[in-house]
Amino acid sequence: MTDQERHIAVWNNCLQIIANNIDPQQYNTWFKSIRPVSLDGMRLTVEVPSDFFREYLEERYRDLLRLTIRRAIGADAQLFYLVRPVQNGAGMVLPAGQAAAPTNNPVSISTYQPSGTPSPFVFPGTQRLRINPRLNPVYSFGNLVEGECNKLGVSAGESISMAPGKTPFNPLFLFGGPGLGKTHIAQAIGIAIKERFQDLQVLYVSGNEFKTQYMDAVKGNRIVDFIAFYQRIDVLIVDDIQDLVGQGSQNTFFNVFNHLHQNGKQLIFTSDRAPVELQNFEERLLSRFKWGLSAELSRPDYNTRLEMLRSRALREGVSLSEDVLTFLASRIKTNFRELEGTLTSLVAYATLGHREIDVELAQSVTGNIVGEQSTEVTIDTVIKTVCEYFNITRDMLLSQTRKRQIVQARQIAMYQCRNLIQNCSLSTIGAELGGKDHATVLHACNTVQDLMSTDKLFRQWVEDIENMIVVPVER
After folding, report:
1. pLDDT band per the 50, 70, 90 thresholds, residue 372
2. Which long-range CB contacts under 8 A does 316-319 form with residues at least 24 apart?
3. pTM of this prediction?
4. Which CATH number characterizes residue 443's domain?
């Protein structure tokens, strides 16, 4: 065995040990993507996707890793990490079987007013209560497509489902625009927890529902029962937390939050904006939202949109040609909800009209949803738009200069060509954008995707340029 092969064999040996000591899902999430780089004496170097990834491994699996490499290499073995940028590559999981809605076991709640109803889920005079978790089995991890747009939220959610209340991600705060999968991920965590920990009380509720329940409790003089009810929850999922406005409801929620968090219960929130951007919230509540992990969900890229369509079509038992799938993924760019709505409409048109699902029908359906493109997108269109946006000349964009602004503009142009133009090869894009090869174009696209997930200003540039390129015709 050569020195170059030895580090691979050693790491494979480590993986076998690790796989025998942790849950398979955790192994797939945190260890399968690690790549061995080198073995220099007793020093093993492995490559991980991000610094967050490395920190989580150190937080959760430090002892296991230390013991494993010592067993594989020797008592003086050392492990080093090489952090590389997260690469673009959407994963797909096969759809889960249709499962029954999760249920909670009966729980005793001490009520101070026998006739009171602490919430819509509790009935008067009942001591042993069965709380409806209100989880939709469709929103499982098995029905979720993972991509760079949601990778952090999904990874954190899977970790929480293995040890609710015991990870650094408490609370987990998922935020992003509509239709990006916040509710899906939040409910998937609850469903996975109920599958593993049947005795835990899980509850999904919206911010507006919590506020309404609070107001009803105040009117009925049942606020003590209301608080007692929520303090018995082990995993509280609050969707659209931005709707929880009002001093009274926020004060009560603050007390519920403190009780649950201090007792090791899991809190999961979703919002259409980051904690720092929430309006009319008390500072002490905002500070608690930031205690755990805030994970932003962004717009899905082309590959993720394509895999989402394949997954949903498979789940629905619909056969779609690759031409139809690529057309839909190219035309519907906003969010998952719009993609699902378009696919549902397409199937309905085909079924009711006894038509074959082809590109012509897909064009008709998407035209009613997102409008027609004013012009066909070409490489030349992308180049002109990027130059206009950054106020640079075409010659500057296509030159060999390494100035950061020009390089980033060129990379964005390559990314937009790949994302917006159908059947356009990487080699063609590279040839038109300064005579680059396909590997350079692929690297540029990955770099843009990485920067979009970490740099809000850069992401705004990319989205602005895309909106300038694809303009719906006014109806």
Report:
1. very low
2. 316/343, 316/347, 318/343, 318/347, 318/357
3. 0.57
4. 1.10.1750.10
